[in-house]
UniProtKB/TrEMBL annotation:
Places the protein is found: Golgi apparatus membrane
Protein name: Alpha-2,8-sialyltransferase 8F-like
Family affiliation: Belongs to the glycosyltransferase 29 family.
GO molecular function annotations of the record: alpha-N-acetylneuraminate alpha-2,8-sialyltransferase activity
Organism in which the protein naturally occurs: Callorhinchus milii
Length: 375
């Protein structure tokens, strides 16, 4: 009887292991939940290999982040972010594809992110997104400035880095990680020379706010060479210009284009499509980000989420202190405060934190690696 009992037990164990093995290798098993988000089959193998499933508190945290707070307090957001850092992040392919489909359905960045000769005809009238009662006619001179085709082709890249300008990047040592991305978006001609260790040097697209031209370069009415020289660090990147947001911006933006052309710059000027801004603003309003004007960071992030397979964010930190409670500058290069009348950054940040916990994007803050002096 003892031998028979042992035989039954051993046979049962072998059958159980065989069943588990078959389930894990069936092609119709698409997803498996080990944490607070669903992951795909390849990620299952990675999780099983490391044996690091997220603790129960991560499940509760993800539920909490589905709610919209009535008040936006910096300390509460910082505390929430610190808690998310204790949970392992996994890219959620299913959620990512659904979110990308929603963006494509409303806004279609591949065709409409910029104004081109394909989506805008000679003689057409464009309506300014910030001044809907004003229009501009696309003359031959303007038409010749537009790219002949859409500048972006899918797939744009596997991994994109969107680099904001938050002071949280100071001493972050994130430069190497950022430069390893396939495509790097930057905002508002942020300086990178001498800051490569923290913010990297690679640039594939950089935005340029006309206010920078007015304040720093006298609207290019006098010497234009300093502007050209300051932009050479971005190499052959696209420079994204809001020519059709405000009527007062149009002349300055075209001066930028002509200056770059006159000095033989390698930068490639492209122009934000006002219809895309209207549509993407409405999209973010539908999910709780109801600002007067979206920040340039959120605009390029929106395009990246549609154009890229995976998106990591850096420098998106709207708080005056870091996770340790130490005061930091508003930007990694200066301490000029944001215009509160235009942007409500904590609301943007909270929505990004929600997308982070869903595995749609990865929100990076703090140090990417320790420097020798930190050890």
């Amino acid at each position: 009887m003892k031998l028979w009992s042992y035989f039954v037990i051993v046979t049962g164990i072998i059958f159980l292991f065989g069943l588990i093995f078959n389930l894990m290798n069936r092609t119709d098993v698409k997803t498996f939940s080990l944490s607070y988000i669903r992951v795909n089959k390849e990620q299952i193998r990675q999780i099983l290999a490391t044996q690091k499933a997220n603790p129960p508190e991560c499940v509760e945290l993800s539920k909490l982040l589905t709610l919209t707070p009535k008040r936006f307090k910096d300390d509460d957001f910082i505390d929430l972010f610190k808690k998310t850092q204790k949970c392992t992040w996994y890219r959620n392919s299913e959620a990512n594809q659904k979110f990308r489909a929603r963006l494509t359905n409303c806004c279609n960045a591949i065709q409409n992110f910029t104004v081109t000769q394909v989506n805008t005809a000679l003689g057409a009238n464009l309506t300014y997104d910030a001044q809907p009662k004003k229009q501009i006619t696309i003359t031959e001179d303007i038409f010749n400035l537009l790219p002949q085709t859409e500048p972006f082709k899918l797939p744009l890249s596997k991994l994109c880095a969107v680099v904001g300008n938050g002071g949280i990047l100071t001493n972050s040592s994130c430069g190497e990680e950022i430069d390893q991305a396939d495509f790097v978006f930057r905002c508002n001609l942020a300086p990178i020379v001498g800051r490569g260790d923290d913010v990297g040097l690679k640039t594939d697209l950089v935005t340029a706010n006309p206010s920078i031209m007015s304040i720093k370069y006298q609207s290019l009415n006098f010497r234009r060479k300093p502007f050209w020289e300051s932009t050479k660090v971005y190499g052959k990147a696209f420079i994204l210009l809001p020519a059709f947001s405000y009527l007062s911006n149009t002349g300055i933006v075209f001066k930028v284009s002509y200056t770059l052309e006159d000095f033989g710059s390698k930068l490639q000027p492209i122009y934000l499509n006002p219809s895309y801004i209207v549509n993407i603003t409405q999209f973010w309003k539908s999910v709780g980000v109801s600002e007067t004007r979206l920040s340039s960071g959120l605009i390029v992030l929106s395009a990246a989420l549609e154009l890229c397979d995976e998106v990591w964010l850096y420098g998106f930190w709207p708080f005056s202190k870091n996770m340790e409670g130490m005061k930091i500058f508003n930007h990694y290069y200066d301490n000029v405060p944001p215009k509160q009348s235009a942007h409500v950054m904590p609301r943007e940040f909270y929505r990004l934190l929600q997308l982070h916990t869903k595995g749609i994007l990865k929100l990076r803050a703090g140090k990417c690696k320790n420097k020798p002096t930190d050890i």
